[in-house]
Amino acid sequence: WPLLPLRALLSLAFLALLPAGAAGSKLNCHRTCICASNIVSCSKMNLTSIPKALPEYTAVLDLSYNSIARLRAEWTTVKLPKMSNLLLSHNGMSFISSEAFLYVTQLHYLDLSSNSLQQLDELLFEPLTQLEVLLLYNNQISQIDRSAFSGLRSLQKLYLSQNKLARFPLELVKEKTRLPKLGLFDVSYNRIKSLPIQELKLLPAWIKNGLYFHNNPFACDCALYSLLAHWHIRRLSSAVDFKDDYTCTLPGPQKTTVNVFELNGDYMNCSAVKEADEEVYLDQTLTLRCDSRHRDMVKTWVTPNHEIVTSATSNQSVTLLANGSLQIGPARVEHSGLYTCYAVSETLNETLYVSVKVHNATLQAGNDTLNTAYTTLVGCLASVVLVLIYLYLTPCRCPCCPRNGKAKSQNEDSIHSSTLSATPTHDALGSKAGLSRHVAFVEPSKDLQGQNGKVNPNAEDEQERKRARGQRKRSDAESISSVFSDTPIVV
């Protein structure tokens, strides 16, 4: 044998002391792993890398409870088309190559839980189009690229609990961007302080039923209470199973933590939640959703008149749609009542009730009534304003007159009262001649007539001056009597 360098001899001696496969050697089903048909279990073998030369027929590979810190792209150099389960939990793993899953595209179950992962890069799981269950709980994940889960069109269960997420990944569950088959999504025990409440309300019940977000540091508000209380009324598993674990922090310096379902009591006095009725006006179209807690169920409706509605019995006013919803329209008063939906599958069944109220008016009529009421209100306000202007903003009369002075202001009340009285008193008759300004029928005298019987305006002015000089002391009694007399005054 030729002489070997000292370093090579030491390396061979070190490898001899390690268990078979600990340094990435070929698979040894007698010492490194336990092989049972197509199952290869290498759990708790102190491995730092994955054994080479895995058989192509391997369906389950268990590498949990080892020290495999990095999952590189070359962990397998051959395709493993039959591998469906890969278990890598409890390894302290902190890195996963973006090409790590190129040779195991048929995975259905992937367990990466209880490791040290901090982020999920873009398109990380894209090759796993057949993956159904992905376990990522109990890591240190704080960042998730929005495309990290792209391509997981078969994923049904995603566990992200016990991480450091500060944002709720709404894109995974909302319409148009959600994973199409995702029915269980767990983000409990993270650092999420607020939720997109309105978007979560619009989700179908089969998604809400498997959406878990308990034990996050939420701030207490009535919107959060309303959301969870409604889910509890619907008996959704996510709200019923973990009712005691939904907590929030009250506003204030004490930072008191209370149960969300107690916010309708003394803490925040939130309004009690009830099932809302569906309302519609005459001639409108209304769609009732059979929002069941499970997908792909056969749905049958029963009307308030106990008529069974199926795709075969639909008529012009009540129609069963392809997605299981019931369409009513044009709405009539007789459509009011309680509708029942029966959702049935091979192993499950569920019954939902929807109350419908049809208003005995069209929507346009309702708007006209509102407009009339508004117009009436505006008219009343305008009247009040005019009355106030009349009472408080009319110009003064007596103090502004230079000739009358104080004497007129002292007698003003008596003059007005005598004017309104049918029988004038002697005191009233002794007042000034200010009441002689009432309208009277006057016949022109001869002095006022000119040629051809026409009135002479100059004569009229002269006559007026004479009357003013000679009759200034005229009795007010005559003037007042003339006001209430049916006989015109002849001057």
UniProtKB/TrEMBL annotation:
Main location as per UniProt: membrane
Q: How does it sit in the membrane?
A: Single-pass type I membrane protein
Q: Which UniProt keywords apply?
A: Cell adhesion, Cell membrane, Cell projection, Developmental protein, Differentiation, Disulfide bond, Glycoprotein, Immunoglobulin domain, Leucine-rich repeat, Membrane, Neurogenesis, Phosphoprotein, Repeat, Signal, Transmembrane, Transmembrane helix
What subcellular locations does the record give?
Cell membrane; Cell projection, Dendrite; Perikaryon
PROSITE patterns according to UniProt: IG_LIKE, LRR
Keyword field contains Membrane: yes
A GO biological process of this protein is:
heterophilic cell-cell adhesion via plasma membrane cell adhesion molecules
Annotated region (Disordered), positions in chain: 405-427, 446-491
Tell me which domain of life the UniProt entry assigns to the organism this sequence originates from.
Answer: Eukaryota
Domain (Ig-like): residue spans on this chain? 253-355
Q: Per the UniProt record, which residue ranges are transmembrane?
A: 373-393
Q: Which InterPro entries match?
A: AMIGO, Ig-like_dom, Ig-like_dom_sf, Ig-like_fold, Ig_sub, Ig_sub2, Immunoglobulin_dom, Leu-rich_rpt
* GO CC field: dendrite; membrane; perikaryon; plasma membrane
Task: Tell me the first and last residues of the signal peptide.
Answer: 1-24
Q: Which family does it belong to?
A: Belongs to the immunoglobulin superfamily. AMIGO family.
Q: What is this protein called?
A: Amphoterin-induced protein 1
Q: What is the species listed in this Swiss-Prot or TrEMBL entry?
A: Lepisosteus oculatus
